[in-house]
Design a protein that fits this description.
Elements (H helix, E strand, L loop, with lengths): L1 E13 L5 E2 L2 E2 L5 E2 L7 H14 L4 H4 L12 H14 L2 E11 L9 H11 L7 E6 L5 H4 L3 E12 L5
Parallel strand pairs: 5-6
Antiparallel strand pairs: 1-4, 1-7, 2-3, 5-7
Bound molecules: the ligand Nc1ccn([C@@H]2O[C@H](COP(=O)(O)O)[C@@H](O)[C@H]2O)c(=O)n1 and 2C-methyl-D-erythritol 2,4-cyclodiphosphate (CDI).
Ligand L45E5XJ5 binds next to strand 6.
Length: about 160
C-alpha cells in the first residue's frame, strides 16, 4: 500500500536567532523565529508524513502553547513523527522537499540535510531529495522576511498477499 502527503511551512527571519534548516545550523546574520527551533524544512517534512498518515499536523501533536516544546529540537519531533509511521507499518518510498529562500545559499548544506533527514527516517539518502530556490527577490521570501519549505512524501507499507 502507498500513501502520499504534503507539507508546507513558513518562519520569519529575525536577528538574534540561529538559522537551523534541515537539522543544519547555517552561518547567517539572521535566524528563524518560532516556538521551537523553527526548522522550517523539518516541519514541512513532519507535516508531509503526518498528512500521509491522515494524522493532522505538527501543531496538533506538538502544540506551540506547550512549554515542553519551547526551543524544541525539530529533529526530535521528526523522529517522533517517524515512530507514528513505523507503528503503522510504513517505510519511506521517497521524499522531495524545496526550501524557498532568497538567502542564505543552501547548496553547500544540502548533502548534510539529506543525511540528517534520511537518518531520522531510517532510510537511504538516495530516497531523500532536498532542493532550494529563490523567488527572484519577489514576495516575503524574496525580501528576506522569511523562509518557506514544502515537501511531498510517499510512504509504503508491504502487505502480504494470500
Ligand atoms: N537559498 C538558495 C536558493 C537557491 N539556491 C540554489 O541556487 C540555484 C538557483 O536558484 P534560482 O532561484 O535562481 O532558481 C538553485 O538551483 C539552488 O540550487 C541555493 O543554494 N540557496
Ligand atoms: C513546532 C511548534 C511547536 O514547538 O512550534 P513552531 O516552532 O512555532 O512551529 P510551527 O511551524 O508553527 O509548528 C508547530 C508548533 O506547534
Amino acid at each position: 500500500m502507498i500513501t502520499v502527503g504534503q507539507g508546507f511551512d513558513v518562519h520569519e527571519l529575525v536577528e538574534g536567532r540561529p538559522c537551523i534548516i534541515g537539522g543544519v545550523t547555517i552561518p547567517f546574520e539572521k535566524g528563524l523565529m518560532g516556538h521551537s527551533d523553527a526548522d522550517v524544512l523539518l516541519h514541512a517534512v513532519s507535516d508531509a508524513i503526518l498528512g500521509a498518515l491522515g494524522l493532522g499536523d505538527i501543531g496538533r501533536h506538538f502544540p506551540d502553547t506547550d512549554p515542553n516544546f519551547k526551543d524544541a529540537d525539530s529533529l526530535k519531533l521528526l523522529e517522533q513523527v517517524w515512530v507514528m509511521a513505523k507503528e503503522r507499518g510504513y517505510r519511506l518510498g521517497n521524499l522531495d522537499a524545496t526550501i524557498i529562500a532568497q538567502r542564505p545559499k543552501m547548496a553547500p548544506y544540502i548533502p548534510q540535510m539529506v543525511e540528517i533527514i534520511a537518518g531520522a527516517l531510517e532510510s537511504q539518502p538516495q530516497k531523500v531529495n532536498v532542493k532550494a530556490t529563490t523567488t527572484e527577490q519577489l514576495g516575503f521570501t524574496g525580501r528576506g522576511e522569511g523562509i518557506a519549505s514544502q515537501c511531498i512524501v510517499c510512504l509504503i507499507a508491504d502487505v502480504l498477499s494470500s
